Amino acid sequence: MGYDMNVKVYNQDGAEVGSVNLRPAVFEVEPNEIVVHDYIVNYLARQRQGSAATKARSDVVGGGRKPWRQKGTGRARAGTIRSPLWRGGGTVFGPSPRSYGSGLPRRMKRLAIQSIFSDKARSGQIKVIDRIEINEYKTKVVKGLMTKLDLAGKKCLILDEDRNEKLSQSCRNLANVQYCRAALANGYDVLNADVVLMTRSGLDKVQEVFA
After folding, report:
1. N or C: which end of the chain has fewer CB within 10 A?
2. Which of 1, 19, 13 is nearest to 128 (CA)?
3. In angstroms, how far is the first alpha carbon of the chain from the final one?
């Protein structure tokens, strides 16, 4: 399989410095909308905290002995003060910590991400920069970079190969800019972005991981 799709490569000043071929196995896949839908629904379900919990009768403190004898008191039989019928007793069928996500086969996850990347490539929403070098923790540096690349005002996802701490911290106060390591990219963030900005090394990692 050849390398057919070609995109321009820019530097940090916004000048064109070359071009790069996109691997068809990642960027020229026929999008499967059903698989993408299942992937997104499962991803959002897994983001739910799922920490709601109540105490069943076995979790409530106390109730180790019988409150009164079985017969002769005129009252109903009782074995523990932690019965769900008593005030302060356990809860019946209450919620417990759980994960709301479902099992999604690895092949489906890979196909979903490939479908999303391919759709972005067809729509011209993939942009490549040779590298991003930031020497200080400054939001205005990233803001200036977005302006030079004609990405101001657009929701942009930046993918780089390694953990770039200065770039990550500099993006935090920009509502429309998000940073992520290329190998950890998820389909929801890619789909939600207007433009996916990748460094050359980030592009190589995406093609290595998701091919």
Report:
1. N
2. 19
3. 12
Cβ 182 vs Cβ 159: under 8 Å = yes
- Inter-residue contact 81 to 67 (CB < 8 Å): yes
6-38 tens-digit pLDDT: 899 999 988 989 899 999 999 999 999 999 999
Which residue reads 């200036």 in tokens? 144
Q: In the structure encoding, which two tokens stand for residue 23, read together?
A: 């691997």
Domain range list for the chain: 5-49+103-210, 54-94
Beta strands in the chain (DSSP E): 5-10, 16-22, 126-129, 156-160, 177-181, 195-199
Q: Which residue has the tokens 């993006």?
A: 171
Q: Rounded to two decimals, what is the model's pTM?
A: 0.81
For 5-49+103-210, which CATH class? Answer: alpha beta
